[in-house]
């Protein structure tokens, strides 16, 4: 079982996702709190922003699943796809 990685975001928000996913932000500017979450193939899974009391998705891939809690936690439920050849390598 894979342990998901937690990422601290602005305004005490937290994102939890698979450790193979990467998150980037533009929060060099204090007024911008936008983030993108990429998978291991650098496909954008989720493009979003956070504010004190809000979470806004501005784009996502068609199959990205996530949930948001009242305690400012964003949990990405989508796992990386495992291909048959990857499974065969794991068995060796």
Automatic annotation (TrEMBL):
Name of the protein this chain belongs to: Uncharacterized protein
């Amino acid at each position: 079982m894979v342990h998901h990685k937690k990422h601290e975001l602005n305004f005490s928000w937290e994102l939890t996702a698979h450790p193979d996913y990467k998150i980037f932000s533009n929060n060099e500017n204090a007024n911008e709190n936008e983030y993108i979450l990429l998978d291991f193939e650098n496909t954008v899974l989720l493009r979003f922003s956070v504010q004190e009391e809000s979470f806004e998705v501005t784009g996502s891939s068609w199959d990205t699943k996530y949930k948001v809690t009242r305690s400012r936690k964003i949990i990405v439920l989508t796992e990386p796809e495992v291909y048959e050849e990857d499974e065969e390598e794991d068995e060796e």
